[in-house]
User: Fold these one by one.
Assistant:
Number 1:
Amino acid sequence: MAHYDVIVAGVGAMGSAAAYQLAKRGRRVLGLERFDIPHAMGSSHGVNRIIRLAYFEHPLYVPLLRRAYELWRETETAFGEQLLYITGGLDAGAPDSRVVTGSLAACREHGLAHEVLDARETARRFPAYRLAEGHVAKSALSSPM
């Protein structure tokens, strides 16, 4: 009978990354997947995904994301392929919305480069966006650290 330190349920992008990191640390890991590998049934299928440094949900995510960026870069080095592309991003809404206030709190608490743009400046700089009058966009600059 095989014994494992950790069993990872689902080995898509996140599960396989978790299994890889645990195995690197000497743990015996079993990865279980319900579907064929690869498949289009999970949350991480397709050609791209997003990872944000300034999560609006809580500033405590920032240190976790900084570590995740480091691990992505380590993985890129190990496999000789760029996987993480930093592009910046916009969080938009009413100035007192949870998304805007939470994202700004994360930026301010952790010194993340950002700008706050009104609706007119957002449209000028990012022509695809047309915010409602009175709304703002928090623009995260592309440098992750």
Note: The mean pLDDT is 90.
Number 2:
Amino acid sequence: MPKPVRSPFHIRFLGSWIALGLLRLLSLVPLPILFHLGTALGDLLRVILPSRRRVAERNLSLCFPKLSEEEVSVLAKENIRNTARMLLYTGFVWWASEAKLKKRVTIRNEAALDKLEHEGSGFILLAPHFLALELGGIFISLRSPGVSVYQRTRNPVFDRSMLRARQRFGGTMYERKEDLRPMFKAIRQGKGCYYLPDQDPGRRRAAFAPFFGVPTATWPVLGRIAKLCGAAVLPCPTYLLPGGAGFEIVIGEPLLHFPTGTPEGDAESMNSAIEDCIRRDPSQYFWVHKRFKTRPPGEPSIYD
């Protein structure tokens, strides 16, 4: 039997409500100020969370082997700063009005979406785990409310707020363990789907495919969804702009020859597209996550 969802108003979540109130206050602070506060917070986090710093440095050294140890350290430092900046931007992402969002967000190659929507074709936006990915999904729903998958968190206070934020402009979220057939139906009827694929699914559900040359446990689901729904897949990374200027969403061209016909081929094609997005600015990917935690049978752990 599934465990009952605890009420977000239980006394044990008082700290979460206080944290949520702080995020709400931060949403009123101009982004350039938060950018610089995030720089200081990121430098503090590097000191008090050395394990996360080591994970980021390990990931970067594997994916960019030509970088020197010093270059990896500098890149990891900026990555953790960007992580902190995006944490402080959370209030803006969750509560900013349509007008404020449009003032701070730019979409590149929006014509690719216009073409698909004019044709009445459903599509899937491949959203890699860049630090600003949540902003991308919310903003895309302004132009055409679509669908997306999310994973329920253990904290009902933040889960409730996150879900409200993501759906406030008409988008529809489906919990990944629930029946996803209504989502597939929506895509076949011409809706867009904002899809987040690149986390470690564990050995049982993974297809192993190269990610910057490293055999990596990869979700093999994207190709099946694209085939089932007859939908094009377009890369869609979201980047933080320097100095707190806002955000940039880049719509890529549809992946060619996708799906490939095999889970491994689909995973490799997807990872290659994500690599291209990362190379534009490696400091903005979610490197503090143990992306290579699950290893192929017989291979040793990558992390300490």
Note: Residues 99-284 form one domain.
